[in-house]
Amino acid sequence: MITKVAASASAASTKSPVLPKSAEHLLLRMQRLFGLGLLLAASMTGFMGYNVETIRNNLNEHIHIADDRISALEQKLIALESASSKPKQK
Predict the structure, then answer these.
(1) Sign, Cα dihedral of 31, 36, 40, 42
(2) What range does the domain containing 61 cover?
(3) Does the residue 13 lie in any domain?
(4) Torsion 58-62-67-71 (CA) sign
(5) What single string gives the DSSP state of each residue in the chain?
(6) With 70 as the cut, is the pLDDT of residue 84 above it?
(7) Looking at per-residue confidence, does 21 or 77 come out higher?
(8) Would you say residue 1 lies in a domain?
(9) 43 falls within a domain
(10) What is the pTM of this model?
């Protein structure tokens, strides 16, 4: 008995459903909406990729500016250390 029910359930699931006209229209609208969603996701991903590249370039620029400032401060520190290490003349 259980095997007959399972067999009939599996046979029913493999049959192609016949949809009424309103259900076909609803399915078509859902497919279009899904397609538009995919298009929107793809465009957002492309736009985000552009933003990531812009952010990366800006960060690299700021890193170079910070490195230049650090180098200048190191040079000043070396100059101050060398000036303070010289013996004072009386």
Answers:
(1) positive
(2) 19-84
(3) no
(4) positive
(5) -HHHHHHHHHHHHHSPP---HHHHHHHHHHHHHHHHHHHHHHHHHHHHHHHHHHHHHHHHHHHHHHHHHHHHHHHHHHHHHHHHHSPPP-
(6) yes
(7) 77
(8) no
(9) yes
(10) 0.42
* Tokens 């492309």 -> residue: 46
For residues 60 and 69, what is the distance between their CA atoms, to the nearest angstrom? 14
Residue 15 has pLDDT above 70, yes or no: no
What are the tens digits of pLDDT across the range 33-79?
A: 988 888 888 888 777 776 778 888 899 999 999 999 999 999 999 99
Q: Is residue 5 part of a domain?
A: no
How many domains is the chain partitioned into structurally? 1
C-alpha–C-alpha distance, residues 78 and 84, integer Å: 10
Residue type, 68: D
